Amino acid sequence: HSADKANFKWSAPSNIALVKYWGKKDNQIPANPSVSFTLNNCKTITELSFEKRDNNSGFSFDLLFEGQPKESFRPKIEKFFERVGAYLPFLKNYHFTIDTQNTFPHSSGIASSASGMAALAMNLMSLEQLLNPDMTDDYFYKKASFLARLGSGSACRSVKGNVVEWGAHNDFLESSNLYGIAFPYVIHDNFKNYQDTILLVDKGEKQVSSTVGHGLMHGHPFAEQRFTQAHDNLSAIKSALESGNIEKFIAITESEALTLHAMMMTSSPYFILMKPNTLEIINRILAFRQETKAPVCFTLDAGANVHVLYPESVKEKVLEFIKNELVALCQNSQYICDSIGNGAEKY
Ligand code: PMV
């Protein structure tokens, strides 16, 4: 690799929050700390080729999605480069070609911003490392997460695995509003290889962008209580993850998902992002749990899709239930089997 012309390739996974980030301050600073499972199969794979330009001819880039030019992604990437420019002063000397693909169907309603921004950030750090070979691994990963955050807040949790915390919190000495950290405590074996089956209920365009959504927390009547609750839930889920208390884990995770939606339903203007089948699926999961005692629970993003979370030990039983009862409630019967994973990987 020469710093004049070379290319890198990184993959980064999506992540699913357990304690939700909802509400932000300027510069992508979260209003409350959050914690997520890093996923394993839902990934963005991005190849970054770069070429040094002489005499400050300026920064430029070409954008390919699955090998084809994709102009509709350009504004998001442009904004990302504008934000990270101050932290990567060498960018202005390069022309980039960004070639990106997702392992999950695009327009599946699965947000690719977390995995996409994280994969791009990893590549940019590889270039910085080429220019500054003495940087530590710790610096590399922290700064990658920092840069990813500037693209999309939750993307800072996609750099590392398997559980990532983001945002200043008293129980996490190393925590920061600026980047995510790998969960610094020993996680109980009950959560080892935890499963996430994503039920695609509605693949339509998002009704409300997450930027607008976060903005609705400014002046929200319940904002302060919500931010305090997130801190408390983070403490509680930390203990549950350490002690292996799945019951407590379930109670917090489901309450967080419903609270996220409750915040949107009580915003001004308000949004209802669940669909009838979202509720039907939730009710069936609750009934299945009551009947079988299988420790399965749901969580939601800022949309209609349902993430079904469960330990590997009940995988067979839960997948059978999902196939028999829940898949028919998905759009085009689509669902994705995933599990917790290790974060970004270099090719
Ligand atoms: O990263 P953003 O700005 O798209 O926000 C994502 C927010 C949620 O996915 C709803 C919650 C979270 O913590 O990931």
Automatic annotation (TrEMBL):
Keywords noted in UniProt: ATP-binding, Lipid biosynthesis, Lipid metabolism, Lyase, Nucleotide-binding
Residues of the Mvd1 C-terminal domain: 198-328
Residues annotated as domain Diphosphomevalonate decarboxylase-like N-terminal: 12-171
Ranges that cross the membrane: none
Superkingdom as given in the UniProt entry: Bacteria
InterPro entries in UniProt: GHMP_kinase_C_sf (IPR036554), Mev_decarb (IPR005935), MVD-like_N (IPR053859), Mvd1_C (IPR041431), Ribosomal_Su5_D2-typ_SF (IPR020568), Ribsml_uS5_D2-typ_fold_subgr (IPR014721)
Protein name: Diphosphomevalonate decarboxylase
Gene: mvaD
